[in-house]
Amino acid sequence: MTDSAERPTPPEGLPPELVTELRECAPGQLRKAIVHAQELLHFHGEAELPIDAEGNDDILRVTEHDGYTEVVKQFRCADGCDDCPHGPYLYHVTEEPRPDGESKVHWSFMGTVNTEEE
Ligand SMILES: [Zn+2]
């Protein structure tokens, strides 16, 4: 038996039966689960725009550019702190095609956006 204290906490909203299944998986199976989850996202048409405002992220601005998407977002800590919300931060989001036909979404952190000076 593994020490349960070392287990990561599953994200909120993930069905418990799925959590149980994933915990039983070997690393190789987990990788396949990720691939399959991405395939399902494509199937649902949700992989087109790799930007989601789930959780504690606030998407402030999304600008399409040639080859990348510029995203400005801020986020709040799960419990909140004196500095919340954090940011806004600027990201360049690119989709990198991979040999297996999937594409990998890559978020590049570009820096903090100063909204006061515009
Ligand atoms: Zn905070």
Overview in brief:
With 118 residues, the chain is α+β, with helices and mostly antiparallel strands. The chain has helices at residues 16-24, 27-43, and strands at residues 57-64, 69-75, 86-97, 103-112.
Describe this structure in words.
- There is one protein chain.
- The longest helix is centred in the first third of the chain and has 17 residues, at 27-43.
- Strands 1-2-3-4 form a four-stranded antiparallel beta sheet, with no helix packed on it.
- It is flat and about 50 Å long.
- Mean pLDDT is 78; it is low at 46-50.
- It is 22% helix and 31% strand.
- Strand 1 and strand 2 (69-75) form a beta hairpin.
- It folds into two domains: 1-48, no CATH class; 51-118, no CATH class.
- The protein contains two helices and four strands.
- It has 118 residues and is α+β, with helices and mostly antiparallel strands.
